[in-house]
Known about the structure:
The protein is an all-alpha fold. It has 7 helices and no strands.
Amino acid sequence: MSVSNDFPRPGRRVTGDARDAMVRVDQAGEFGATRIYAGQLAVMGDRHPYGRLIAGMAAQEERHRIAFDAMMTRRSVRPTALAPIWNVAGFALGAVTAAMGPKAAMACTAAIETEIDRHYAHQLDALGKDDPELSTAIADFQAEEVEHRDAALAHGAEQAPAYPLLSGAIRLGCRAAIALSKHI
Length: 184
């Protein structure tokens, strides 16, 4: 599914349904991120030097999720029906990458945040000035997601075992989750 089919192109007005899909998928993504970090922390613990870094990122993701939860309530946007799957899959992804080692946990973060940065950029292009509340939230959260990606890279993400394969698989899964959560 291409971005142009999912969201209007720049210069075209974003419909209410498209905005609802944006809020739904963004809330699902932030929920998934909290679950990934929960899985990583369950394996690594918060005493590990990377555990402290992950706990800080997790706190920001929780704040993002809470903001999208509130926006969903105000706008009467239904959540994705896939939340139970994202709950388990996110935790499992976090736990497995942490079990592979701290560099693999960082590789997971770098891969996810690379896709989320790309996803948020597409949303901001599509929104233009049509929805200042949503645009502001997305832009603010995107900046923090980029910080997470950069921190993960600085902490050795690219040194993880089979980094290109691991990163590619996680990015593909993230794109699939985004596409599915928009509609289901």
